[in-house]
Amino acid sequence: MTIHQNGHFNFDCQLCGECCTGAMRVQLNLYDLYKMAKHLKLSSTHSLFQKGLVQLVEKDQRYWIPIIKFKKWTIPYCPFLVNSMDEQEVLHGICSLHPKDKPLICSMAPLGRIIDFQNQSVEYCVTAPLEDCPGMGKKRENNIQEILDFHEAELNYQFVYYQMLDSLPNWKASKEMYLGEIYSFTTVPSFDEVFTSIKNNLIHLTNQKSTPNNALQ
Ligand code: SF4
Ligand code: SF4
């Protein structure tokens, strides 16, 4: 359900870890890749792909986006999920990237943002990560504006990244091209420096290759 930016919802994560398993798809943005690589002390985001932690999947038959590559066991599970047992012998699922290096989509959940560039609209929705998520409806009140303010910088990075993907005219490039030109970058400089360089690189490539007869393959 969509919810007004000034609204609130009741939710309190019970740390069961269930939403970090199964068919869940954790979509990442460029800043998520940067944070995850830094967390693992990797000097390039390319290593996240090499280590099999992240993979690219095609979105809307238009471009490639990174998602966390779940490990396969009896059920698939996120490689960043760590299980622990409390004194009452209740099993908990903790995110090893929590709190500051967690992907934005996980940090915001169950609050989501729907951006429609065509109609220039932004809406917010509250969606249970799982049908029977035990945190939904729990007493703790969450103020949407406070969540948005807290994540403001990351939400801006994410918006510009989506805008960048959306503005690629007829740019149907290969997975390898996306991996090399957009998703593999150094984590040594600040993210702002890295982001500016990716944007400039992409503008340059798009200008060179955007005509239909010359589209990147
Ligand atoms: S399923 Fe719900 S309660 Fe359990 S970890 Fe996910 S968000 Fe938290
Ligand atoms: S990154 Fe953390 S919160 Fe997100 S799915 Fe993986 S373990 Fe769960």
Shape: globular
The overall number of domains is 1
Poorly predicted parts: 211-217
Task: Kindly report the spatial arrangement of strands forming the biggest sheet.
Answer: 1-8-7
> What does the average pLDDT come to?
90
Report Rg. 18 Å
Number of strands: 9
List the secondary-structure elements in sequence, H or E: EEHHEEEEHEEEHHHH
Helices, by number, come to: 7
Bound molecules: iron/sulfur cluster
First and last CA, distance: 39 Å
Structural features, described:
The protein is of the alpha+beta class and 217 residues long. It has one domain. It is built from seven helices and nine strands. The strands form four sheets. A three-stranded antiparallel beta sheet has the order 1-8-7, with no helix packed on it. Strand 3 and strand 4 form a beta hairpin. The chain starts with a strand and ends in an 8-residue tail after the last helix. The C terminus is likely disordered. One iron/sulfur cluster binds next to loops. The site of one iron/sulfur cluster has 11 residues, from loops.
Quick overview of this protein structure:
With 217 residues, this protein is of the alpha+beta class.
